[in-house]
């Protein structure tokens, strides 16, 4: 890869990050597309990523065999990345809806939320807006939680 190409890639990633786009899809591979490891292993890696990552960190003799060797591990890391990116996005969506409820339904100030969460009130405001950059928003799966009657408190 040329230096100019790396600079261009870095500039694109920096711009996406500035806009609040953090989860970049690296592949269209789905768990069922993993061919080098059994389906049960794929399911276990997605269920407990720490065990998979810890096994790689320990690198005990023969550790990679259960994961399909280097090919299986390459496929598993792609599928795991996609899975974790989806969970991270869903968690951020839940955080946004919860912060909106706390600001509006529970009438909490940004300063109080900042103290509760260990972050600045400015950062709480950004998180409550879901990193709004003015771009068209996708539907938010947890928007129903912004209503006080959904919390059963």
Class from helix and strand fractions: mainly alpha
Fraction in beta strands: under 5%
Termini separation comes to 56 Å
Tell me the overall shape.
Answer: elongated
Q: How many helical elements?
A: 6
What integer value in Å does the Rg equal?
20 Å
Count of strand segments: 0
Mean pLDDT, nearest integer? 83
Oligomer: single chain
| Element-level helix/strand string | HHHHHH
Largest sheet: none
Please give a structural write-up.
Mean pLDDT is about 85; it is low at about 20-25. It contains six helices and no strands. About 55% of the residues lie in helices and about 0% in strands.
Question: What are the salient characteristics of this protein?
Answer:
single chain; 153 residues; mainly alpha; 0% strand
Topology:
Layout: H1 3-18, H2 39-47, H3 49-58, H4 69-104, H5 110-117, H6 121-128
Helix pairs in contact: 2-3, 5-6
Could you give a quick summary of the protein structure above?
The chain is mostly helical. Helices cover 57% and strands 0% of the residues.
């Amino acid at each position: 890869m040329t230096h100019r190409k790396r600079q261009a890639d870095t500039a694109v990633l920096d711009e996406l990050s500035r806009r609040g786009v953090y989860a970049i899809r690296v592949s269209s591979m789905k768990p069922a597309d993993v061919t080098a490891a059994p389906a049960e292993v794929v399911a276990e890696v997605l269920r407990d990523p720490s065990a998979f990552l810890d096994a790689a960190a320990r690198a005990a003799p023969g550790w990679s065999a259960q994961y399909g060797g280097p090919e299986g591990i390459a496929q598993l890391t792609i599928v795991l990345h996609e899975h974790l990116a989806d969970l991270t996005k869903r968690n951020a969506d839940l955080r946004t809806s919860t912060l909106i409820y706390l600001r509006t339904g529970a009438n909490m100030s940004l300063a109080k939320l900042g103290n509760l969460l260990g972050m600045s009130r400015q950062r709480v405001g950004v998180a409550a807006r879901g990193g709004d950059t003015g771009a068209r928003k996708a539907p938010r799966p947890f928007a129903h939680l912004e209503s006080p009657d959904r919390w059963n408190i």
